[in-house]
Amino acid sequence: MSSTIILFASSRRNGNTGQLTDAVASELELDVIDLGEKDISAFDYEHRNRSDDFEPLMEKVLSVENIIFASPIYWYSVSPPMKTFIDRISDYLDLPDLLEKGRKLRGKKGYVICTCISDSPDEPFINAFRETFSYLGMDFGGFINANCSNGYKAQLYENDIRTFIEQL
Ligand SMILES: Cc1cc2nc3c(=O)[nH]c(=O)nc-3n(C[C@H](O)[C@H](O)[C@H](O)COP(=O)(O)O)c2cc1C
Q1: Does residue 95 contact residue 47 with C-beta atoms inside 8 Å?
Q2: Does residue 145 line the site of ligand 1, with CB under 6 A?
């Protein structure tokens, strides 16, 4: 199995998405990186935020082959810290000293862990990842979604977790 990083962001660490993400992470024996605990500020055209936690985290992201993005679906979109993280990837497309590193995203595989209140994730949510990966030259590796309209029911997702992990 290739090297993998799990980036997680939800408004609650141990909610539905946190539980699904922890279940995947435990099978993979990986830590979950909680973007909400990092000091990552919003995208800034003037790049006055270069000393925050984003670039050190990106060093780790750029060192692996598989990047798992874990977020609940909030209004057809990702959670705010996940959006901020994705916005900041633009730094690696804009800043001359980061451009070469940013090109290392090409060929990596992106995966999505999500929870919502449907059996399938909302199209705008999953398409945003498909388009973003495509723009960055990454491959869309797959996703796992849990319908949490009645909370996260771990036993319902054991098979899906196995299938998801097999794609890595
Ligand atoms: C602010 C907010 C917006 C939501 N928007 C959607 C949505 O657009 N589509 C959907 O299927 N579920 C939506 N939900 C339901 C959540 O995706 C679902 O409860 C999810 O499992 C919550 O994960 P969490 O416990 O990690 O926050 C929303 C929930 C909240 C709190």
Answers
A1: yes
A2: no
For the segment 30-85, what is each residue's pLDDT rounded down to a tens digit? 999 999 999 999 999 999 999 999 999 999 999 999 999 999 999 999 999 999 99
Atom of ligand 1 nearest to the CA of 75: 8
| Residue numbers of the domain that contains 10 | 4-166
Handedness of CA 86, 16, 34, 29 (dihedral sign): negative
User: Beta partners for 114?
Assistant: 71, 145
CA of 6 to the centre of ligand 1 (A): 20
CA–CA dist 22, 60 (Å, integer):
19
Distance from the CA of 118 to the center of ligand 1, in angstroms? 10
For the chain, what is the domain count?
1
> What's 118's domain CATH number?
3.40.50.360
Pair of tokens at residue 12: 């609650």
pTM for this model (two decimals)? 0.98
* Tokens encoding 8: 């997680």
d(CA 89, CA 55): 9
